[in-house]
Amino acid sequence: MVLTFVIEQAGCSSCADLIRAALGDVGSVEEVAIDQGADTAAVRLVPRGSIGIDDLNRVLSEASAGSGHEYRVASGSLTHLT
C-alpha cells in the first residue's frame, strides 16, 4: 500500500529534509515535493505497518517542533493506493 498526502506549512527545502527524516521512522518515503508558493509538501510514503492520520500528524508535529512551522496532513488529502 502507498499513502499520498499533502503537508501544510512545509514549503522550503529544510522542511523536506525534516519531513523525510521523520517519516523514515514509519515507512519508506518515495517522494517529497515542495510547493513554496502554497507552503505545502506532497508526500508519497510506503508505510511499514498500519498507520493512520493521527499517527502521521503526531510524527509530523514532533518533526516541526522548534522549526517555526506546524506540520500537519492537509484535511482531505490522505489517499491509499494499492
Would you kindly provide a written description of the structure presented here, covering whatever features stand out?
Helices cover about 30% and strands about 35% of the residues. With about 80 residues, the chain is α+β, with helices and mostly antiparallel strands. Strands 1, 2, 3, 4 and 5 form a five-stranded antiparallel beta sheet that branches. The longest helix has 12 residues, at about 55-65. It is globular and about 30 Å long. The mean pLDDT is about 95.
Q: Which stretches of 5+ consecutive residues score pLDDT under 50?
A: none
Structural class of the secondary structure composition?
alpha+beta
Strand tally, please? Answer: 5
Number of helices: 2
Rg estimate, integer Å: 11 Å
- The rough form would be described as globular
Helix content: 25-40%
Main sheet characteristics: 5 strands, antiparallel
Can you give the mean pLDDT?
Answer: 93
Please report which band the strand proportion falls in: under 5%, 5-15%, 15-25%, 25-35%, 35-45% or over 45%.
Answer: 35-45%
Order of helices and strands: EHEEHEE
Termini Cα gap: 5 Å
